[in-house]
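Troubleshooting log. The previous run stalled partway through. Resubmitting the same two chains, unchanged.
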Amino acid sequence: MKLAQSRTFANAPLPLIGMIDAFFLLLIYFLVSSTLTPAEEELAAALAARSQDASQADLEPQIVEVLPDGRGFTISGREVPDQRALTSLLSGLPKQAGVFVVAPDEASVSAVAQALQAAEDAGFERLTYVTPE
Amino acid sequence: MTPARSHVGVFDLTPMIDVVLLLIIFFLVTSQFSRSIRAPMDLPEQAGRAGERAGDSGAVVVDLLADGGLRVEAEQVSPEVFSSMVRSAVRDSGNGVEVLIRADRSARVEHLNALADRLIESGVTSYRIATRPGSGGTP
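Second attempt completed without errors. Output:
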């Protein structure tokens, strides 16, 4: 009798319904919460202080200066109104020496990101963010 | 013949499934926590550099707020405390420290420059700026 009972338990089907319910609830929870987390990307740049940049550079890098109040950028004294124009101008310049990005205190972080992105899109490998003295 | 067959019982999967589910839940919850440390920020809208990201575990992630305040792991820290954190991270790691700056897009560069100067003083040679992929490209 005892043997027969244990055999009945062993042959009983696994109650999967509860487990599947819990599994689906967890799946839905994590799917919903992960879509609420916005995606982020990154822009990388080397760091240098203005006092040390010139002495360490073997080649002459392109220097992009961010203008305050969203007025655009300057590169070698030439004013560029927006990010698209900066990208196309940088695309035609030699890239071996890299690009230095300088920004005055009055500019916004958004403009710095635009300058870095433009250099990135133009194909520059060496990006350096130079802080003022 | 019959006793030998009685040893070949049905393999009980229930404890194994329990353990596997517990492990799944544990790893999902911990990964969710590590992501939620990154508080929502109004990041600059740029595509960024695809396929290159700072390691989530080793990188120092700092939020630069619009007013110049610094926040590390959802807690506001003073610039001095942040400098000492970075210095100790540089000391502990042999091959440099990855620093990810999550800066508010409207923050003045004054604050970014001050932060960059602190990083240079602490021995950091490069940094990353977090961006939000979007339309971008506007001046």
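Takeaways: Chain B has a mean pLDDT of 80. Chain B touches chain A through 57 residues (CB under 8 Å).
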